[in-house]
Design goal:
Blueprint (H helix, E strand, L loop, with lengths): L16 H11 L1 H21 L3 H15 L1 H26 L13 E7 L3 E7 L7 H4 L2 H7 L4 E6 L6 E7 L13 H6 L33 E2 L2 E2 L6
Antiparallel strand pairs: 1-2, 2-4, 3-4, 5-6
Helix pairs in contact: 2-3, 3-4
Length: 231
């Protein structure tokens, strides 16, 4: 008689409807929260102010978010995180190399957060898969997420946990100089000169050296230089 492990009692948990429903709620959590919040907010404003003012307030809120740089960056970066999770899942399922285990299960997508260059999506590898499988599909992940490049970031202490860095922009690819935090710190020391300026580095000026004049021989006898033989 074959011995069964504890996990083998439930051979295909991902096919059970409670697990499928729970995964759908986790996958679409951002859209569900925003949709429910929008309906509840609009319903409450409609009850308090009438049918027109809720749309006026909603439009004004969108304009305010778009005008303020901090709120615009906050909202746009979170929207790209949601888009990356869906696009990454679709890309891993449709890519040519194997990105799932033999059971056909993709890695768990835990969360996504914005970075200075784009977004970082954290994943948890299932049994039978690893972060090396994603290194073969990086050329597919970048166009799928509408990005310029994609990289795999591994954790040394736990190989099961890894991340996909979606690179959208390069902070160094700018014509204007980048402000240094050392310049701000140096300006706080009683009016002293800053430790580092923000002026771009210019090319070095090279001044050609003058060629030294040829040294005349000290002792010449019959047109022959004898200075090397005389101390």
């Amino acid at each position: 008689m074959r011995r069964l492990d504890v996990m083998e009692i439930w051979e295909a948990p991902k096919r059970a409807w409670p697990v499928v429903l729970f995964c759908l709620l986790i996958r679409w959590r951002a859209e569900i929260v925003l949709g429910v919040g929008f309906l509840l907010g609009m319903g409450w404003l409609r009850h308090e102010l009438g049918p027109v003012w809720p749309w006026v307030i909603f439009t004004g809120l969108l304009v305010l978010i778009a005008v303020i740089p901090q709120t615009r960056w906050f909202v746009f970066s979170r929207v790209w995180c949601v888009v990356d999770r869906h696009r990454l899942r679709t890309c891993l399922r449709q890519s040519r190399p194997r990105t799932t285990n033999l059971d056909g299960a993709l890695p768990f997508m835990l969360w996504a957060r914005p970075t200075k260059t784009g977004e970082r999506v954290w994943l948890w590898a299932r049994a039978g898969s690893s972060s090396g499988d994603l290194e073969e599909v990086l050329e597919y992940i970048a166009p799928a997420c509408y990005a310029r490049e994609a990289r795999v970031h591994t954790v040394r202490k736990l190989s099961t946990l890894f991340a996909v860095d979606v690179v959208r922009r390069d902070p160094l690819d700018k014509s204007t100089p980048i402000d240094s935090p050392l310049a701000k710190i140096g300006s706080l020391f009683g009016g002293r000169a800053p430790l580092e300026t923000t002026e771009p580095i210019s090319g070095a000026t090279i001044t050609p050296l003058k060629r030294p004049a040829e040294k005349q021989p000290d002792v010449v006898v019959n047109g022959e230089d004898l200075s090397d033989y005389i101390d």
